[in-house]
Amino acid sequence: MEKPRKTFIGLVDKAIAAANSMRPDELLFSYKGILYPTTVCSPETFKALESFEARRDDVILAGYPKSGTNWLSQILTDLIAISQKKTPGSESGVNAEEEEEPYLEIGDAEKYERMTKLPSPRLMVTHLRPENLPKSIFQNKAKMLLLIRNPKDVATSYYHFSNGLALLPSYETWDDFFTDFMTKKMAWGCYLEYLSEWNKYADKENIMTITYEEVKENPALSVKNIATFFGIPLTEEQLQLVVERSSFQSMKKNSDKTHGSFGNIFFRKGGVSDWKNLFNEDQSKRMDKAFEEHIAGTKLGKKLKYDLYCKA
Ligand SMILES: Nc1ncnc2c1ncn2[C@@H]1O[C@H](COP(=O)(O)OS(=O)(=O)O)[C@@H](OP(=O)(O)O)[C@H]1O
């Protein structure tokens, strides 16, 4: 039985009510040159975040919007519960729903003060680029899981999400969205720039990179590798439980409890290659060229297996 994420559901409810009374051009604001949703982020929170004190045993998940952060966050929540000898899903684990919204940059400026009282290990999720994260995360060597997904599916997922949730500007056509996606007009910035910024950190020993596609391809091996990286021993039975609970079908089924009425928006298709239903040939070539210019030859670029997932 899944516990409702009351903080999250309450936050989104409030944000949607606020967004409904805003003009489309008010939905995003710019902070240090990057756009963010006005209803869930604020300059005050960003300012407060700068002096956030990370702990060495914090568990941090970094991923651009729509790269599968809700999915990996569920896997990490269960792994942490197991490390604390709790049964996943049945007891309040890390960041118990009533306690704190795990998305680091989302919420009020006082949340970091409240987070000082949370027991270790704290789970945090972020869509931020590394240069906008608090310095203490890197100084204190907190372990991070960096989640990346092929850019054509990220764009596709982001398009449907933008039109499904009032917090983000909606688009009349996919073509309009694609133009904005390629010209840095997205909340949390340009994905290809995100990848090249994170690539500068890809060799750090406290950062493990994983792709959406590899978790999809072999969930058991991925969960095992993540658990090993965070130093969490797992029995075969526990491994199977985490894999089963994090399957797209299970998460979608539980989504009315975990994500309220927005469940269907957060858990849409959960697959690979849906981009083929939206991209035309010209758009596909434009993305191929931009990928080549920004990231193709780098460590993260190679890890994405672009030719396999983004060509033909
Ligand atoms: N369990 C599981 N398995 C496979 N795929 C999953 C799973 N859970 C979520 N998803 C898919 O991840 C996409 C949403 O990404 P995020 O969770 O990062 O979105 S958000 O930015 O935090 O709103 C979104 O992708 P699309 O379906 O392609 O839109 C979700 O459906």
From TrEMBL:
Q: What keywords are annotated for this sequence in UniProt?
A: Transferase
Q: Kindly give the InterPro entries that the UniProt entry links to this protein.
A: P-loop_NTPase (IPR027417), Sulfotransferase_dom (IPR000863)
A Gene Ontology molecular-function term? Answer: sulfotransferase activity
- Segments spanning the bilayer are none
Enzyme class, first EC level, given as a word: transferase
Q: Name one Pfam family in it.
A: Sulfotransfer_1
Sulfotransferase domain ranges (all copies): 57-298
- Determine if Transferase is one of this entry's keywords: yes
Look up the EC number in the record and give it: 2.8.2.-
Kindly give the PANTHER family that the UniProt entry links to this protein: SULFOTRANSFERASE SULT
Family from the record: Belongs to the sulfotransferase 1 family.
Query: What protein name is recorded for this chain?
Result: Sulfotransferase
Query: What species is this protein from?
Result: Geospiza fortis
